[in-house]
Amino acid sequence: MLFNSIDFAIFLPLVFVLYWFVTQKSLKLQNALIVIASYVFYGWWDWRFLSLIIFSTLVDYVIGVLLSKEENLTKRKLYLGISIVVNLGFLGFFKYYNFFLDNFITAFSFFGQSISSSSLNIVLPVGISFYTFQTLSYSIDVYKKKLEPTKDFIAFSAFVCFFPQLVAGPIERATNLLPQFYKKRKFDNNQAIDGIHLFLWGLFKKVVIADSCAMYVNTIFENYESLNSLSLLLGAFYFAFQIYCDFSGYSDMAIGLSKFFGFNLMQNFNFPYFSRDIAEFWRRWHISLSTWFRDYVYIPLGGSKGSKWKQIKNVFIIFLVSGFWHGANWTFIIWGAINALFFIPLLITKKNRANIDIVAEKSKWPSGLDLFKMVYTFSIVTLAWIFFRAKSVAIAIDYLVNIFSFNFKGGVNYLSIERYAIENGLLIFGFVVLEWLSRRNTHPFFGKHKIFKLGIVLLALFVFGVYSQATDFIYFQF
Q1: What amino acid positions are annotated as catalytic residues?
Q2: How far apart are CA 427 and CA 416, in angstroms?
Q3: What is the pLDDT of residues 156-185, one digit of tens each?
Q4: Contact at 8 Å (CB) between 129 and 325?
Q5: Cys-Cys link to 258, which of 263, 420, 437, 450 (CB 3.0-4.6 A)?
């Protein structure tokens, strides 16, 4: 079920009314309603995959109970290992089976050996990468004794399948979200208004910016061989804003929806395109995933301790794993490696934490140096996005080669699709200005002029919503 669909427009008010007016006197009933509503929400795509969520929930709940009763370190490691194997086993099979099989066959063919095998027609369950990491955070934190294991199966089930962030995050930690299911929740008018604002802002990002950019991105990438350098740069530029507004738009809507029901989720994006270096970008982009890898992979590997070579190795591992998490394609792995190569010089020179404050925090506009750094960081991030968007490594390389052929003949090719590039350019300019003015807050409706900003967003949603169709969010495929 899509947030930007008629189905969801009917679903949400029904759940809201039942939650606050029918089950409000019982915490268990409220949690049970969340579980039922979440299963309906998820099963709207394919009810068969509900069995995966239910099985994963059962496994990690039982593992938590077993860990609470066991002090023997060997047995505790065994229980944790079972959780990791089950969760990553499901993820590996549904997401990576064909990738490994195809590459295995290719490797043998390279040495002159022929292997006959056929790929399976495996459908990737929506959101499996997100809820798998969420349940793993519970098992790992219980194992490390950072969290008391729950005995409330309904609350735990609600934590695993909470529908606002089930299919595309933020990837919540059990230490943050699970305790919120233990506390009685009262309707807070101010929190609900903040939730509405966040939801509308996320919807604006998705419908007005991301979906408008998508039409041009799709056409340019499909016809890149016949387009000049300026047109290809335009396609990469638009994709940078498409993926940002699509994914951060979902996160904003998820956080806003959670507030409707009395929950607070972590911030997932913090104005990443105002970053002054790649390290700052990754502290501001998909925060729930980057911090997950930091805490559960990078730090256990040794983190920034040890020799410089070990630090570099750990950084490469994190970026490669992060790339591979996004999809079973070499394009994502190379995308991760490129970001690692951008990051390593900062690590070596100990400048990876040089920019941890808000850019131009005490002034309206950035300095010339900050502006240069932001443009440079955005440029290298955008070039790396080409590998993320391209269907194959060969296409990504060819796309880049065509960009740097410096063929400017004919200017930007205006393709025959519904909206012109100049409209999107003006939209993006206005969006960037709005974000810049709001960079000290978590979203534009905090701080000054929120009524004016809300009016702009509602007008844009009305105008562009008339022509838009409900489209999947990009990160549903991950």
Answers
A1: 326
A2: 19
A3: 999 999 999 998 879 999 999 999 999 999
A4: yes
A5: 263
